[in-house]
Amino acid sequence: MNARVTQLRVRRGKSQEFLDALESTLPLLRKQAGFRALIALRTAPDPTMEVMVISVWDSLDDLKGSEKNLFLTQVLSRLIPHCEGFPTIREHEVLVGEFAAD
Fold first, then answer.
1. Is 6 helix (H, G, I), strand (E, B) or coil?
2. Which tens digit of pLDDT belongs to each residue from 55-78?
């Protein structure tokens, strides 16, 4: 498994708009080949909210495929208007992962 870790700083007073934008990407995400999970973590509420978004994929090829088919571009275009600057995006190999079945 592989993960894309995206770190963003949300603009003051834009936390709800950011959350709405992030949630609006879920239907797109569910259609992506190899998608496993999405986790969004925040450090603190407004005014200095920093968010780490972790998406988990079956393989590096699936993760890279979400970049080639413009999925990542669509997601970023929804989130960036509510953020300061451009996010930091990194790819990681998942060493240990356990996801409970729904």
1. strand
2. 999 999 999 998 888 888 999 999
Residues 1-47: tens digit of each pLDDT: 999 999 999 998 898 999 999 999 999 999 999 999 999 999 876 66
CA distance 47 to 22: 18
Neighbours of 98 (CB within 10 A): 4
What is the Cα–Cα distance from 25 to 35, expressed in whole angstroms?
13
Domains of the chain, each with CATH number or no CATH: 2-93 (3.30.70.100)
Rounded CA-CA distance 15/46 in Å is 7
Identity (one letter) of the amino acid at 56?
A: V
What SS3 state is found at 102? Answer: coil
DSSP of 9-75, one letter per residue? EBPTT-HHHHHHHHHHTHHHHHTSTTEEEEEEEESSSTTS-EEEEEEEES-HHHHHHHHHTSHHHHH
